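# step 3/5: fold
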Amino acid sequence: MLKSQMVITHTLITSSTRLSILADIIAIPKPYPLPKVLSIGDIFIAFGVFVFIQEAMLSRRLIEKNIIF
């Protein structure tokens, strides 16, 4: 599908592609229920969301215990 350019949101990496390290290059194979390909940016975003949620949960717990005013 990508070779026939039927997918608008993705393109193949070629020799003229800049910053190919940021492309979807990490394959999640078939044993995973939803096999897909991820990029390093996807991992950074997931990590950032995880840290944000952890900080929100921790600060709420500290406020409830009156540790932080």
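# step 4/5: annotate
The CA atoms of residues 24 and 38 lie 5 Å apart.
# step 5/5: archive (pending)
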